[in-house]
Design a protein that fits this description.
77 residues, mainly alpha, 2 helices
Amino acid sequence: MSENNGTKILLAFVAGAAIGAAIGYFLSSDKKEEIIADLQDGAAKLKQDISENLAKAKEMVDNFRKVDIDLNTENPE
């Protein structure tokens, strides 16, 4: 079992090193500004999507609370 954990750790290390090397390569390339702009656009869109979904979730929770209050008012136990 410990060999399996060691293998997983080694693979994670190799994957992290590969990702780091790829990021370093792209950030030192001529397309650095384009990549950074794309990442910023993606992050802004993700933030907007999360905000919209959070607002929808809050609205759903409020609606469930209203339904629960209405049901409790109509059928008190």
